[in-house]
# Entry
Amino acid sequence: MVNQTNLRQPNNTLVGSLMKIVFSVGIMLGSGFLYGFVQSSFNSKPIEQSTQAELRRFGRAEYEQLRTGMSLTDVRSILYRGIEVSRSATIATFVWENPDGSKITATFENDKLKSKEQSGLK
# Structure
């Protein structure tokens, strides 16, 4: 006569192990979703601020602050991000444009300001 308890024991162990795995995966997924929700909820303000900063107007005063030899980072600290319109191995050209169409075009060689032009700045 075969003992029914011994036959069910391995099956119960397998089910228990599977339940632990499913529970662990559920906890990991839930944590990830919660983390993403918290990040998007609490960090949306800096993204909005950086977008607003890029939309800020600039004028002749900012243009006059730009000096040959400045790094791209230094120029961006004055004019914000800008749009890269061309790049080669050593030369990059960026444009900053106001809503009224006035703009600054700057050329960088090895990430240093080589030349600048403006049109329509007040």
Summary: The beta strands are 83-87, 91-97, 103-109, 112-119. The first strand starts at residue 83 and ends at 87.
